[in-house]
Amino acid sequence: xxxxxxxxxxxxxxxxxxxxxxxxxxxxxxxxxxxxxxxxxxxxxxxxxxxxxxxxxxxxxxxxxxxxxxxxxxxxxxxxxxxxxxxxxxxxxxxxxxxxxxxxxxxxxxxxxxxxxxxxxxxxxxxxxxxx
Length: 132
What we know:
Layout: H1 10-18, H2 20-30, H3 39-45, H4 50-61, H5 65-83, H6 88-94, H7 100-111, H8 115-131
């Protein structure tokens, strides 16, 4: 089964499909997005020391593990923002951020807009579709 993501660049997805150890580490983290994902746990899961895993992942995938993890968390948040009207602070906690501010900052770094702005655009787009 091919690795899928709406936000990761195509070259990263292609590399993850090729380097199974890195892909397994990402899948391990995907199952734990609701809480902290410690790098030493991920490295142990991959059968490597933390420094060796960090070097391996960045060299093979072209992006640090923490950056991929941030993108996966934001990707998960997109689905929630598109389908639920829960408070942003609840969503931040649900996807493993300890603070709403940290989540909003990470979201804006990845998406170029705040979670509230994104939700508003999605809502406006859905209302426009109904009107036509």
